[in-house]
Amino acid sequence: MGKQQDVGGPDRHSGSGAAADGATGGSVDARLAVAQDPTTPQMTLIDLASDPSAVVRKAVATRTDAPAQALRPLTRDRDRDVREAVARNPSTSIGNLLVLVKDADRWVRWAVAGNPACNESVRRVMAEAPDKELRGLLAETRELEPELAARLVDDVSPEVRERLATHTHDPDVITALMADRTARVRKGLARNPRTTAAQRSALAQDPVVDVRVALVLAVELDDADLRSLVDDRSVQVRMALATSEAVPPHIRQALGGDPDEMVAAAARDFRPGAGNAAVVRAPRIGHRASGTGRGRPGGARR
Questions:
Q1: Under a CB-based contact definition with an 8 Å cutoff, are residues 108 and 83 in contact?
Q2: Conformational region of residue 110, where left means phi above 0, alpha means psi within -120 to 50, and beta covers everything else
C-alpha cells in the first residue's frame, strides 16, 4: 500500500495506441467507461488523468492500480472530489499523502486520515496541524505511536483529548488522562473498555454526573461500584443503571424500589436487547455524505 509504480518512459504517450485515441475522444460516458474498465492499459489511465471531465478524472483517482504518473497530477487537481478520491486511495504514495494532508479543503485532509497507507510521517504532520478535526481523527487511530499520543494528551482542544480518551489502547495515556480537569475528557475515558477496574472505580465517583452516566452505560463495573451507584444522588445515574445492558439483574432489581417512580418503572420494565440504553459508536473516519451539501459547494462535474 502507498506505493505507486511509474510506467513507461519519456515516450509513454506514443504507446497508448488505439486505446488512448478512443479514451480521449467520444462522449464523457464513453471515456468514463474506459476509466472504470479493469482491463484498460495503464498508459490510457495516464491520458485519462488529464481528461476535461472531473467525473472521468475521479474514476482514475479511485483505481488502486493507477500508475504514479496518473495519481501524481490528480493530487493537485482543481476539483476537490478528485483530490479526495486520491486521498482515499490506498495505493497513493506517502509523498502524495503528505501533500494532500495539507490540502486547503477539509474533506480532502480528513480523507487522508482514513487511508490505510498512512504512516508515521503523515501522522506527525496531522499531530501538528491547526485543523482540530484532523487531530481528532488522529486521536482515534488505534495503533498511534506513543510519542504522538503523548503529544495529544496535552492538546489544546478538549474535543481532541476526549476522542483520544475514548479510543486509546495505551495504558499510560489512559493514566495521564485520568487527571484531566475537563469533564468531557473523563467522559471519554468512561466509555473506553480498556480502563482498569481501579480506574473505573475512580470514574464511578467522579463529581460530574455525565461521567458517571457514560460509565454505567458503556462498561461492566465491579459489584461494589454498582451498589454504590444504586444510591447515587443523581436520578440520571440511577436511570442509566436501570436501562443499561451492562448492569446485572440483581442491581436492576434493587432499583425496582427506587424513590423516583420513573427509575423504578424503568428497572421493572427492562427487557434485554430492547434498545433500552444508548449505544456508543465511534465516528467514521474521514466520512461524509456523498454529493454536495451545505458548506460543500460544487462537486464532480461532467
A1: yes
A2: alpha
pTM of the shown model: 0.80
Average pLDDT over residues 187-197: 97
User: Contact at 8 Å (CB) between 180 and 154?
Assistant: no
1 band by pLDDT with thresholds 50, 70 and 90: very low
DSSP 293: B
The grid coordinates listed for 130 are 491547526
Q: Evaluate whether 131 touches 106 at the Cβ level (below 8 Å).
A: yes
What whole-number percentage of the chain has pLDDT above 70? 82
Which three-class secondary structure state does DSSP give residue 296? strand
- Return the number of other C-beta atoms located less than 10 Å from residue 169's C-beta: 13
**Residues pairing with 296 in the sheet:** 293
**Of 81, 74, 114, the residue nearest 96 (C-alpha):** 74
Tell me the C-alpha distance between 177 and 296, whole Å.
35
Residue 20 has pLDDT above 70, yes or no: no
Q: Exposed, middle or buried: residue 22 (CB in 10 Å: 0-12, 13-18, 19+)? A: middle
Cα separation, 180 vs 206, whole angstroms: 12
pLDDT score recorded for residue 143:
84
Residues 3 and 91: beta-carbon distance below 8 Å: yes
> DSSP of 173-242, one letter per residue?
HHHHHTT-S-HHHHHHHHT-TT--HHHHHHHHT-SSHHHHHHHHHHS---HHHHHHHHT-S-HHHHHHHH
